[in-house]
Design goal:
Blueprint: H1 23-26, E1 33-38, E2 41-44, H2 49-52, H3 60-66, E3 67-70, H4 72-79, H5 84-94, H6 105-118, H7 130-141, E4 147-151, E5 158-162, H8 163-168, E6 176-178, E7 184-188, E8 194-199, H9 202-212, E9 216-218, H10 227-232
Antiparallel strand pairs: 1-8, 1-9, 2-3, 4-5, 4-6, 6-7, 7-8
Helix pairs in contact: 5-6, 7-9
Length: 235
């Protein structure tokens, strides 16, 4: 009889924080600061919006060259939703990512209705947005990094990539990116419409955020992956 194989705990500098635990607690001793940034809605400008909703899978450069981002703040103004929490819950409800006690079909329908009216494509969960990838990579390069590790969700595989190659090509297949000195991690939760930048240096993180003009917020000690549900149901 063969012994059961149990994976070792992954390196926390290389993976997304777990659900149902404080994000900052998960990264304690590794990263001092974590910034959650929202995946934007996509507005096709010189490309048919149907191509973004089909199985044609437009590449990164088609999206960068022919689309614009619409921020969650801008979507709030268009939709009448009242908070980022409502946007996040609506997006999660669309993908059946919440149990019935927490989903909100009204928020979901507002997202669907406004997206159809304004010809917007809602953000995709679980992967870095094409409209943000290159800006993030350039910002990391400006912090004097030429290479970056690209790892899988479970911390079992990683590949060292030349950052310029990732910028110039459309080959980024996985969405945990971390520097060789373990001081920066960009990670995306598989069932969420946002990503996180983690760092042991707040000044470094602030510079990256400024260069990329990202929309989101810094985690506090209580922020979890399902922050929108937690915030909405406090008290």
């Amino acid at each position: 009889m063969k012994a059961e194989r149990v994976l070792p705990e992954p390196h926390r500098f290389a993976v997304c924080a777990y659900e149902d635990v404080s994000i900052k607690e998960f990264y304690k001793g590794i990263f001092n600061e974590v910034y959650i940034f929202f995946h934007p809605f996509i507005k096709p400008i010189t490309i048919d919006s149907e191509l973004l909703n089909s199985e044609t899978n437009p590449d990164k450069f088609q999206i960068i060259n022919h689309c614009e981002k619409v921020t969650w703040k801008e979507f709030l103004a268009l939709s009448g939703l009242k908070s980022y929490e409502e946007v996040d819950i609506g997006l999660r409800t669309r993908i059946l990512g919440l149990n019935k006690d927490f989903e909100n079909k009204e928020f979901k329908e507002k997202i669907n209705t406004v997206s159809e009216k304004e010809k917007l494509v809602p953000p995709t969960e679980g992967m870095l947005p094409e409209l943000l990838i290159n800006n993030l990579l350039v910002a990391i390069k400006e912090e004097k990094y030429d290479w970056i590790w690209v790892g899988d969700e479970f911390g079992t595989e990683r590949k060292l990539e030349y950052i310029d190659d990732l910028i110039d090509q459309d080959t980024l297949a996985r969405h945990n990116l971390f520097t060789h000195d373990n001081s920066i991690l960009i990670t995306t939760h598989w069932d969420s419409h946002f990503s996180m930048i983690c760092s042991d240096d707040k000044k470094k993180l602030d510079r990256i955020l400024e260069r990329c003009n990202l929309e989101g917020f810094y985690c506090d000690d209580d922020t979890e992956i399902y922050w929108s549900v937690r915030n909405t149901n406090k008290g």
